[in-house]
Structures are given as C-alpha cells and as structure tokens.
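Troubleshooting log. The previous structure file for this entry was overwritten by mistake, so regenerating from the original sequence record. Sequence copied from the archived sheet and checked twice against the printout by T.R.
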Amino acid sequence: MRIIHSADWQIGKQFGNIPGDAAAAVRLQRLTTVERIAQQAKELAVDAVLVAGDVFEHNGVADETLRRTVNAMSAYTGLWVLLPGNHDAALAESVWSRLQRLGLVSDNIHLAIRTEPIILCDQRLAILPAPLMRRHETRDLTAAFDQMITPPGAIRIGLAHGSVKNRLPERSEAYNEIADDRADRARLDYLALGDWHGTLEIAPRTWYAGTPEPDRFRNNQPGNLLLVSFAETAEPTQVEVITCGHFQWTQLAVTLYQDEDIDALAHRLSAIDLPERQLIRLQLSGSIDLAVKQRLDRVLEQWKARFHHLEGRDSELKINASQADIEQLGAQGFVREAIEKLQHLAAQENSPDSDAAQLALQILYHQQQSLAEKS
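Regenerated output below.
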C-alpha cells in the first residue's frame, strides 16, 4: 500500500508582496504543481493522494479557481482525499459546499468534511480525518481518532491540520493543537499533517508534508511531497521525500561597507542557478556612502531583470554622505550650508529626521549624477 501525502496548496493565494506579472506566474505555478502531483501519483501508481488541509487560500476563491484545481488533479484517476484546513474551514458555506454544488466532486474525490473514518481500497485503508469546521479550534480534534473503529487489519492513517504541541521549531499560534503522541494513542500507522509549510518528521510516524510549491522566504524545506509505503508485515512505515516545487524562495543576508562589497554581492548573485525560477530577498545591513549606494541601486536593477523576482530590504542599511559625496555635489553658498545641515541630521541615528535627511541627500546626489551624465 502506497499513498502520496501533500498539504497546503493554498490555491488562490494572491502574493500581494510581489509586483505584476511575477506574482501572476507564481499564482499559476501552484496549479501547475498540482498537475505535477497528479502526474507523479499516476506514474507511481499509488493507492491514494491525501491533502492535509488548506487546499485553497480561502473560502471565497472564484468558481473558476475551483474548476481549475479539479482539472489539475485529473491526470490521476485514483483516490483523492481532501481535508479542510484553517484557510478553507468547512463552514456552512465554503469551498467544499460549492465544489459539491458545482458538481465537481467525482467518485474518486473524497471530501473529508466529517470527523468519521473514510474506508477505502476494499477496507484495507482507513483515513481518520480531523476537519477544521472553523479557522481556529482550542481543542485537539485528533483526540477523536483514539475511539474510531476501523476494519480489522486496515491501515490507519490520521489526516489533520494544525500545530503539534511542543515539537515545532517555530510555533505560529496556539490554536489547532495536536498531541505529539497522537499516532501512538490512536494506534495510527501514519499521521499525515498540514499547516507547517516545510517537510518535517515531527514525531514517530508523524510528518508534515509541507507546501508542494514554496510560497515564502523561509528556509524550512518546502517544495516536496511524501511517498508513504506500508508493508503488510510489521515493518516500519517508509517515507520518501520527493521534490516537486518549481520556484525557489531565498533570503540572503548581505552586509555592505564599501565598493568591494558590491562586487562580492554581484558575484554571489551570479552563482545562483536557474535565476528565472528564483525569488530573492536581500536583507541589507551595514553603512555605505552615497556613491556606493548609487552603484548598489544600479547593480540591483540589472539583476532584477535576470531573476523572477528580486527585492532588497534596507531598513538596517545606513546611508551616510561622505565628504567626497558632498564635494561631488559641487554646491556653494547657502545650498552648500543646507546640504551640510542635511549631512549632520542624517548622521544623528536617534533623530526622527535622520531617515528623511538621508533620503534627501540620496535624491540630490542622484539628480547631480544624472545631470553630469547628460552634460
């Protein structure tokens, strides 16, 4: 018996922090990745595909999005089991009720919208679901697994969406908690989880699949699905991680002080493979003058055209006008005095006017350089 465990597709996510066409491509890729999962399931001839919650970004996604998702699943005609998560909770009116109303739930698609076993594969497989009926639950819904009766000899798989107590490296919230020994308490052969967006074995026979398509700047092993194999003997459950993501989201810490650091940054960016599939966030820190800042801006503009998306976060980067910068401006008289006052203000880190003064100097320097290039 083999199944694919996936989770956190979040179809319909908008990616508002990414501009224009780049965001549209990221949105579309999530559906393309579902197609890849279906194709993988077909090629591996698995018995079922389980999706552990947050199939959709929210319950208000368009009907067309629902249809596109079901179409993306169509290459695999075997069994699908879809669980509501906190983003797509099984409310009275939800994506799940709409899927049924639109006639999109075929015989091979099982909506795990009730807390009762789903018996499949001639009673050889029992899925024990814990669907979220609202976004946040304060009780452990998987406790119901302990008392669920399944056919003798059936493989028992728990399917849930939430945070495992005391185990996650970063706990995002105190809701939808799951006991870390649930697999033992409920006599599960495997507990398939969603909510944590990275692939993680969190407890014995208990895994987070993670999102199959990366969707944020966090290095927690996203972009995978899990192939889970169950032997008919007493052998342990086997879990194989299969990479299926397309885009890669990478966050780089970059410290800048001088012109040579810009060269090092450019070299670092040039070493990244498949730039068209990369979303890069640069966390910039350090202290540079106006001339180096202008070169940094030019380098980043050049690399933005090569990567799918590139952004720089510079809240920790100090811009200090050097004396050479001031001389480069070539100002005299009262204009020179005003520039020197801005330079003084910009150097006062605790002043509420420091950032504004830094920006004013950058604008003046940029304008001066633009005029010089035109002359």
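The chain has a mean pLDDT of 91. Archived copy saved in two places this time.
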